Amino acid sequence: MTNRWSCYNCQFTGTDRQSDITIGDYWGVRDWKEQWHDGVSLLIVHSDAGKKVIERSGCLETKPTTWKDCVHGNPRIVLGKRPMRKLLLERRILPWAFAHMSYGSLQKVYAGNISKHDFLWLPYKLLKSLRYRLIKSVTKRKVESILKHL
């Protein structure tokens, strides 16, 4: 699965949203363990109209949370995919890769299906791991900066 380039420059991320409600998965939630097997959803109300819709539904179990709690596990709420855009070589070569690479090579690049016996692919695996750590670090700093201003 891949995303359009517009996903990497989404104008609708951030804390000032144009929508009444934002819905998504509540990644990283530590509370409500009894509901982890079903999954916990994140519902952010941005307006009085959104609040009225939620109150009238009558079938939702809601619990309050904070931006700090929900953003740490869900940084794309405020950042979108921008921090990752320039580092995704795989995304940039996708059309070429499908035209020129074997199915096995595609699996290694896009699914990370690299075994310890694939010596030629180990530098790529290392680079991918370093890139992941860099993205995680940059994302964490940006999220903390945004949360300071809320």
Could you describe the 3D structure shown?
With 150 residues, the protein is mainly α. It has one domain. Helices cover 47% and strands 7% of the residues. The protein has a two-stranded antiparallel sheet. It starts with 20 loop residues before the first strand and ends with a helix. The mean pLDDT is 80.
Defining key terms:
two-stranded antiparallel sheet, 47% helix, 150 residues
Largest sheet: 2 strands, antiparallel
- β-sheet strand percentage: 5-15%
Low-pLDDT parts are: none
- How are the strands ordered across the major sheet? 1-2
Shape call: elongated
**Chain oligomer state:** single chain
What is the rounded Rg? 19 Å
Order of helices and strands: EEHHHHHHHH
Helix-and-strand structural type: mainly alpha
Q: Return the average pLDDT rounded to an integer.
A: 80
Q: Roughly what percent helix?
A: 40-55%
How many domains, as an integer? Answer: 1
Q: How many strand segments?
A: 2
- Count of alpha/pi helices: 8
* Distance between the ends: 34 Å
Short synopsis of the structure:
The chain is mostly helical.
Strand-helix topology:
Elements: E1 21-25, E2 41-45, H1 48-57, H2 67-73, H3 76-79, H4 82-85, H5 89-92, H6 94-100, H7 103-110, H8 122-148
Helix pairs in contact: 2-8
